[in-house]
Each structure stands twice: as C-alpha cells, then as structure tokens.
Design a protein that fits this description.
Blueprint: E1 9-10, E2 16-20, E3 23-28, E4 31-36, E5 41-46, E6 49-54, H1 59-80, E7 83-90, E8 95-99, E9 102-106, E10 113-116, E11 121-126, E12 129-134, H2 137-150, E13 160-163, H3 174-183
Length: about 180
C-alpha cells in the first residue's frame, strides 16, 4: 500500500484542475502545466481535493502510484507558489549576469558561457547567488544542475559553482600530506 499515493492533494482557491480523460491541466496565477496520467492510474476530483487511485496491485503500478501523486502535487504547488533553486559561485574574476532570457557566466574560461532559459524559467543574479525559478520543479532542477555542471567546485580551493545549501568536501593538499607522513 502506497502511503504517499493515498494522500489527497488539496486544491487551494485560485487553482483550477481540469481532468479530461488521462490529461490533467493545472492552472494557477503563475501559469499552467499539463500532465498525462498513465493508463493504470485513475484520478478523481472531489470539491477541493484530488485523489489518485490505481487499478490493480501489481508491483509496477504500486511503484508509480506515489510518484504520480507527487508529480501532480508538485504541479499544484508550482502554479501557485513556484519553485526555485539557488546556486552560489566563488572564484577570482567570476561573474554572472542576466541578459533577456540568457544567463552569461564568466567563470575562468577563455569565453563566456551562455545558458538560455527554457520556457517558464527565469534567472536572477544578486552578488554571488544565482536564482533559477519557474513553475515546473523538474525543469528548475535540471537547469540548476546544468549551471552547476559548467564549473563544479574543485576540492582544493573551493572555487566553482555549487548549490547554496551544498557543503563541498575539501582536500588538504600536498603540503598537508607531507606534514602528516613526516610526523608518523
């Protein structure tokens, strides 16, 4: 029995959920998301709640029950509040700026790196923090991961791009290794 899948999704005022066969359209103040439910799952709307149910107790269907409940819930949260992911960058001469729908990174390469924002995604830069925000949690996370991949944090000096809450592992370096081996 899926504990997450059996929880109802509460729909707040200002959010509209339309169910048309297997297509689910969720619209709110920030935008709209359309999801296509697998054939093995059923969805019911009762007043201000949406309930996802499964057609049988097969292992594969049980495994996607909770997943699809969370995907629909993430869409409801996204169209009402939105999602955001923050990245921190550190390094000598590292800069980031936003031009129209592009994020331009100067992170130690001979050329600037441009990342074009997909639809419904926006960038903000304040000091050394890049904020990626949008209505689709999966797309926000994917764009943030691609920004981080441009220049991951190196373990010796800590220069690079990381998530704001991430604590990178630091290595001591060659001088510290010789001191510890000489003392033994």
């Amino acid at each position: 029995m899926s504990r997450i899948g059996n929880l109802p999704i509460t729909i707040k005022s200002g959010i509209q959920v339309d169910i048309n066969g297997r297509n689910i359209k969720i619209a709110g103040p920030k935008g709209e998301i359309i999801l296509r439910l697998p054939t093995e799952l059923k969805i019911e709307k009762n007043n201000s709640e949406v309930i996802v149910a499964r057609s049988s107790d097969e292992k594969r269907i049980k495994s996607i029950h909770g997943l699809w409940r969370m995907l629909i819930n993430n869409a409801v949260v996204g169209v009402s509040q939105g999602w955001q992911r923050k990245l921190d960058f550190k390094g000598v001469g590292f800069k980031a700026e936003v031009q129209a729908n592009k994020l331009i990174l100067l992170v130690g390469f001979s050329h600037p790196v441009e990342i074009i924002a997909p639809e419904n995604i926006s960038f903000e830069v304040a000091k050394n923090v890049i904020t990626v925000s949008g209505i689709d949690k999966q797309v926000v996370g994917q764009v943030a991961a691609s920004i981080r991949k441009v220049k991951p944090v190196e373990p010796y000096k800590g220069k690079g791009i990381k998530y704001l809450e991430e604590i990178p592992r630091k290595k001591l370096g060659k001088a510290a290794k010789t001191v510890t081996t000489a003392a033994s």
